[in-house]
């Protein structure tokens, strides 16, 4: 007889439990104990499937964003392109408001850069820049036929933003900002 955490759908149950905990209680609610209890698995099962809690958070973010993309793609177009854009906008805003903690995961990554003393600007500003650039890039790439996409565009945008918000590991942030950013 197989134990509960050997069921083939353990990964899906863990992912679903973590997603629900994140949506209802925020990042602090997603603990090993809470996720394993909600998913009906032993804590080591989480680590077998996701490596660590950061891996679980990343999987939750990917899954949530994939669900959003499927919902957006499945919406039928109307005869009014302006109304279609309006509906797409509303869906994007509703999704963002319904899943603020998914976007907060990005802020956690930025906060780690600040803690390392390598953030040139404050965490909130850096997060907004990353989100704006990433959103614009995703829309641009999605609107470009695959065979016409510039494979350098994503890397160029990413590195431009990273250059704008971070300092190299071996140098100090300008104007004494290093040390101020971690406090931000």
- Major sheet: size, sense and barrel closure? none
- The proportion of residues in beta strands is under 5%
Oligomer: single chain
Number of helices: 9
Round the Cα radius of gyration to an integer and report it: 20 Å
SSE ordering:
HHHHHHHHH
Query: Which structural class is indicated by helix and strand composition?
Result: mainly alpha
Helix content: 55-70%
* Measured distance between first and last alpha carbons: 53 Å
The low-confidence parts are 176-184
Count of DSSP E strands? 0
Averaged pLDDT:
82
Shape verdict: globular
Outline:
It is built from 9 helices and no strands.
Based on the model shown, name its key terms:
184 residues; mainly alpha; disordered C terminus
Structure description:
The protein has 184 residues and is an all-alpha fold. The chain has a domain at 99-184. The chain is 68% helix and 0% strand. It is built from 9 helices and no strands. The longest helix has 22 residues, at 53-74. The relative contact order is 0.09. The model is unreliable at 176-184 (pLDDT under 50).
């Amino acid at each position: 007889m197989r134990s509960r955490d050997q069921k083939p759908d353990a990964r899906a149950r863990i992912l679903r439990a973590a997603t629900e905990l994140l949506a209802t209680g925020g990042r602090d609610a997603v603990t090993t104990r809470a996720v394993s209890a909600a998913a009906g698995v032993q804590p080591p099962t989480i680590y077998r499937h996701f490596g660590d809690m950061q891996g679980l958070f990343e999987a939750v973010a990917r899954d949530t964003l994939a669900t959003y993309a499927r919902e957006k793609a499945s919406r039928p177009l109307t005869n009014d392109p302006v109304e279609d854009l309006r509906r797409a906008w509303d869906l994007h805003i509703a999704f963002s408001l319904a899943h603020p903690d998914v976007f907060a995961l990005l802020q956690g990554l930025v906060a780690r850069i600040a803690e390392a003393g390598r953030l040139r600007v404050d965490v909130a500003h850096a997060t907004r820049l990353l989100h704006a650039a990433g959103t614009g890039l995703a829309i641009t790439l999605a609107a470009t036929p695959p065979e016409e996409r510039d494979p350098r565009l994503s890397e160029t945008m990413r590195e431009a933003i990273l250059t704008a918000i971070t300092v190299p590991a071996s140098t100090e942030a300008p104007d004494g900002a290093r040390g101020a950013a971690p406090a931000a």
